[in-house]
Amino acid sequence: MLDYLIALALFGTAIGGLLTAQSMATRMLTESLQTTEATTLVSGLLDRVAANPGQLSRYRSHALGEAGAHSLPLQNCNQRPCSPADMVAFDLSQWQRNVQLGMPALPMVKPCLEGGPSQLTVAIGWRAPSEAYGMSLDDCRHVLSRGRRVIALVARWPKAS
Question: In sequence order, which residues have a C-beta less than 8 Å from that of residue 147 and are 6 or more positions away?
Fold first, then answer.
């Protein structure tokens, strides 16, 4: 009888270990998905800027609000040619639309653009599982706040002569 109790205790411990391992694997998979989504979004905007480098200051000067707060550009640059300035508005609108589509994977996502005369930093911060839901996201400083995951990439261009 004692042998059965010891075997049952070992079996219970093994099952508990397997459930813990499954839980950790699920959490790591979710974090991996979030990191991949954020990296794809950030590098996508940098690709758009690289295709229109003469408008770097316009990209930096655009304020990006909460995901989903994007406005439609006056012209669809996929259907007809745009001026470089219109391309900036189109690029940022499309990018914020993509950020909004990524929101299920990135809860409380906050995009941010900053930079100097010949560089641009694109960052995305999102709520970590341990972060409180009621947090305000007023400006780029909150992208780096505690309890948030962040992906930030910096691109540098040669100074215009």
Answer: 127, 128, 130, 131, 132, 135
For tokens 């906050």, name the residue: 110
What per-residue confidence (pLDDT) applies to 13? 94
Of the candidates 132, 136, 116, the one whose C-alpha atom is nearest the C-alpha of residue 60 is 116
Average pLDDT over the chain reads 78
User: E strand or H helix at 127, and its extent?
Assistant: strand 119-127
CB-facing half-sphere around the CA of 24: CA atoms within 13 A = 6
- Residue 72 to residues 45, 68, 93, 97, 159: CA-CA distances in angstroms? 17, 11, 6, 9, 31
pLDDT tens string 99-149: 877 767 777 777 778 777 778 888 888 876 655 554 444 456 555 565 677
Q: What is the CA radius of gyration of the chain?
A: 22
